[in-house]
Amino acid sequence: MKTWIGGAAAAGIGVAGTAALVVSSLAGPSAQAAVAVVLAAAAGIGWPYFLGIPAKKTNGTILALAGAAAGISAAAVAGPEYLFWTPAAIAFGLMAVTVVQLIRGTGQSHRLESALGASTGVLLCCLGAGWIATARLTGTGSMLIVAGISTAVALLVGAINWPDTIIAPLAVVFAGLAAPLAALVMTDISVIPATVAGALIGAVLAAVRRLNRTRSRPMPPAGLMALALAPVLAVGSLAYFIDKLLLY
């Protein structure tokens, strides 16, 4: 699959995943958690294929379960610390991927790369709980809308087949402009926090786009799914902490 085709497909999947997370929040934390679990499972199972690390099925299962646990706990825990159990989910995921490498034994190929890559996947999948936490913290019409629109704009800009030196600044600028516009029209969030959130989201997604374009081997479908959804999940916790630091 050509890089630009894969990038465009990943952008479409990412936008669809973002829309699902935002829209499902209208039906309550349980519905949003169900969507987050599905997306975390898709990203977790596909992440080892994206990185090309060994023990793909085992590592993918661990990532999916860790992300699901974080999402469910964010929907179930009493507030205001909605991510209270997320560090525990991350810790258990990290321990599990380490145990997998120990079981594989000395002399197996790419043990260090597999452990580090799977650990990164655990973190990204678990950070998806931030979408649920954001919706529960200040309501579905506040930072959740701003983060969703900024994410969609940055992903669509990233789908353009231009060099990273052009697209990265454009993603940051357009996401940073879309966020305050969305805040003014749809929410009561002030311009400065919204702009900060949009610019940071654009920077994160531009960095992931760069990671994809450094690949030289073909992208399997499962890996493409992970590429599309993992950064979207990570944006959820970014929005949550910006919400707590600047607004709540």
Automatic annotation (TrEMBL):
Keywords: Membrane, Transmembrane, Transmembrane helix. The keyword Cell membrane does not apply. This is Permease. The keyword Membrane applies. It comes from the Bacteria. Coiled coil: none annotated. The chain crosses the membrane at residues 30-50, 62-78, 84-103, 115-133, 139-159, 166-185, 191-211, 223-242. It comes from Sinomonas terricola.
